[in-house]
């Protein structure tokens, strides 16, 4: 890869008249300037294409490609097929890139050849650009792979990735996985190399009315559950999709107390943790911290269960080292 590779910034757009100008300007303001910006207008019925074209008229790096409405996955795939850069960076048309986003991510891609995909934390803003919250993403490759079993480990608009891994392995977005097409692609991409998330927010993710329809939200949950189930099967654990969806809920909100119905699923969760911990190539220290966190939560919730027989079956899965990790985690939580 050359010292200053061409970066293809890829921006799918659909009826984004209100925000696309700011999105384009955030790309044009990047400190790294050797880029092309490809905008795929996916059949917008407002002035999105006309507004984007005004930027293309003033800067040859900006190119607009209209198409009949085909959906987000097809728009992303067309962008991939047209991109000329050695590195691809995504930015949705209602989001913003902070000025050093391309510079910082590209520096990592160039320094570490094993990195195939680099994301970042992101700042949530409202329709007026007011900051609402900062969301961290799992940083290390080990934590990204654990997160990916249940949820997407990257924020789509923050992602930069290498062209050659996509082209050589014929990887693209699956239109069948509408609304979860990014999660599905990252799950396959990580088979070929490592990922990383920069802890600093490099993009601003905009929340605004009409952004996600009820239908899209339902599709997102359904298809993300299917992706997670597929990932768990690849790990060696096959569960009904209803149980996978429950584990996806637990990933962010583990129950304080396990009910009788929860105990078998908690056993399955520990089995997933054990299988993951045995995967080759993971960082031992990261795996230790990960096991401590989830074993500690399982121990606390199990001891609070009213079903002592079921709790005992769960806790019997703990090895001697597991008890040490779990108790260390619980003690650290008490201190904090």
CATH homologous superfamily title of the largest domain: Spore Coat Polysaccharide Biosynthesis Protein SpsA, Chain A
At the first level of CATH, what is the class of the largest domain?
A: Alpha Beta
- Please state the second-level CATH architecture of the largest domain: Alpha-Beta Complex
Structural shape: elongated
Order of helices and strands: EHEHEHEEHEEHEHHEHHHHHH
Low-pLDDT parts are none
Task: Return the average pLDDT rounded to an integer.
Answer: 94
Helix content: 40-55%
Our count of domains comes out at 2
User: How many helix segments?
Assistant: 13
Give a short account of the largest sheet: 9 strands, mixed
Please report which band the strand proportion falls in: under 5%, 5-15%, 15-25%, 25-35%, 35-45% or over 45%. Answer: 15-25%
Using DSSP, what is the number of strands? 9
Spatial gap, N to C terminus:
46 Å
Summarize the structure.
The protein is of the alpha/beta class.
Give a structural overview:
This protein has 336 residues and is an alpha/beta fold. It folds into two domains: 7-218, Spore Coat Polysaccharide Biosynthesis Protein SpsA, Chain A, CATH 3.90.550.10; 254-335. The chain has 13 helices and nine strands. Strands 1, 2, 3, 4, 5, 6, 7, 8 and 9 form a nine-stranded mixed β-sheet that branches. Helix 2 links the parallel strand 2 (35-42) and strand 3.
């Amino acid at each position: 890869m050359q010292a200053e590779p061409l970066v293809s910034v890829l921006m799918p757009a659909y009826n984004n008249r209100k925000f696309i100008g700011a999105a384009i300007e955030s790309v044009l303001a990047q400190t790294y300037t050797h880029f092309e910006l490809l905008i795929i207008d996916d059949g917008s019925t407002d002035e999105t294409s006309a507004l984007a074209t005004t930027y293309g008229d003033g800067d040859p790096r900006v190119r607009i490609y209209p198409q009949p409405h085909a959906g987000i996955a097809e728009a992303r795939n067309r962008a991939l097929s047209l991109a000329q850069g050695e590195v691809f960076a995504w930015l949705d048309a209602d989001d913003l890139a902070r000025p050093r986003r391309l510079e910082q991510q590209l520096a990592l891609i160039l320094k570490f050849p094993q990195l195939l995909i680099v994301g970042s934390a992101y700042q949530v803003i409202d329709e007026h650009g007011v900051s609402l919250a900062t969301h961290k993403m799992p940083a290390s490759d080990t934590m990204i792979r654990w997160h990916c079993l249940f949820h997407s480990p990257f924020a789509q608009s923050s992602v930069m990735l290498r062209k050659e891994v996509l082209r050589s392995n014929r990887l693209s977005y699956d239109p069948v996985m509408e609304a979860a097409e990014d999660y599905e692609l990252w799950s396959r991409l990580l088979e070929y190399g490592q990922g990383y998330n920069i802890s600093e927010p490099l993009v601003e993710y905009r929340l605004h009315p009409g952004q996600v329809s009820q239908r899209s939200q339902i599709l997102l949950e359904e298809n993300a559950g299917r992706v997670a189930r597929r990932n768990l099967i690849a790990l060696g654990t096959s569960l009904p999709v209803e149980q996978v969806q429950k584990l996806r809920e637990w990933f962010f909100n583990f129950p304080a107390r396990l009910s009788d119905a929860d105990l078998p699923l908690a056993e399955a969760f520990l089995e997933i943790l054990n299988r993951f911990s045995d995967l080759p190539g993971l960082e031992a220290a990261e795996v230790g911290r990960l096991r401590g966190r989830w074993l500690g939560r399982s121990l606390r919730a199990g001891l609070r269960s009213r079903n002592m027989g079921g709790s005992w079956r769960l806790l019997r899965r703990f090895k001697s080292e597991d008890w040490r990790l779990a108790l260390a985690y619980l003690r650290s939580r008490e201190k904090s």
